[in-house]
Amino acid sequence: MGKPRLIILVRHAQSEGNTNRAIHQVVPDHRVKLTDEGHKQAEEAGRRLRHLLKPDDTLQIFTSPYRRTRETTEGLLKTLTSTSEDGGPSPFSRSKIKLYEEPRLREQDFGNFQPCSAEMERMWKERADYGHFFYRIPNGESAADAYDRVSGFNESLWRQFGDKEFPSVLVLVTHGLMTRVFLMKWYHWSVEYFEDLRNVNHCEFVLMKMNQDSGKYILDSELRTWSEYKRQKQVEIARRNPSRRNTLSAFLQAAPSQAEKSPSITGRQWGGCPEGCTHNHEHIRREEIDPSLPPPAAEVDQPAENENDDHALGPHEPAAHAPVDGAADSQRLAPTKSVPSYLLAPGTSTSGDATPHEMPSDDEIESYPFPPQTSSRKAPEISQRSIATAMRRKPERKATPEDIERWTNESGMGRGKQADALGDEPELSSEEIEKAEKEDKSLRGSVY
User: Quick check: is 283 catalytic?
Assistant: First the structure.
């Protein structure tokens, strides 16, 4: 037949978690079972489904692997395939109904065992302010995460619809939020409309009928929304108390004057540290911590090459400077210690003159650090990064002809022979190696 003529989404029957939320603190969510009332609801759903189907319909059911949805499916099939109340046999045989568990239809993950009731109540309020679709449960999922896996399930369904033997009726036994997420993906609803939808009742049927002309599915069930619920409440209040009707005259009489208006009230404050944030994220000056410390030295007016470069001294360490002679350099500062030439950038020296870069001598390495500088000429600023890079730099030695010949002899290359990764000379010829390589690749090709 191809695409089914009818798709039915069913929310599970009443479970113990619906009557007592504290049970999720000790029982895993996927093991929560139905109540006695829930079993009755599941069996009643089977009777309603029987009246909804045609005698010649074929049936396929996908169910969430959670216990409450599997028990709902069993109760539904019990009355669907059993003898009717008037004594007539059922046109649907249990052996002819295709039943599959689909993990992608499972409930939104609420983070393993749930915390205490007070913390859960705080979390529900936080989710209401943040938004039901994007709010991610701690150690769990958001509705957006559930949307991703439902998208994959919908794609699988469309591939199965290509089978001409696909049953005429498809039933999905799942959860309340997953029903809304499934419809959101199918009909391309917005996030705002999804968050306006109210939950589906237990064992409520949501019908999607295929239009025979267009082949598209039309939503045949009316979903409840919070906006409509609020509007009905306002109408009910106005009906009970005519003086509070939403009219312009009543609004003008009840409107407070400008002087009586109270300041705006901020909403709840969420986020931050769990125990309350006591951290100070602002920069604290050194003298505010210890007034006895001297103020930091003035910065050199020469800009750095990169704003991310480190300074020669730490950001909070005061530097001792010596006065500099000369009117032109009256505002500039020079370090009191000289720096060995091998720690300078190429093309510079301790005197500031451009010189060829030289490698360190043994005397320079042993005598570092040098005594205080006596010259009045200033030295350029040297960053910590430049010093570290220079200290890691090692002398380079060019390879001599003797080295090249020795490496060639050791590796076996350059003598018309091949070597493997370890440098050992193979005993096989080049033709035999090429043949073995082709055989190896052919074996691997059958696996990868």
Answer: no
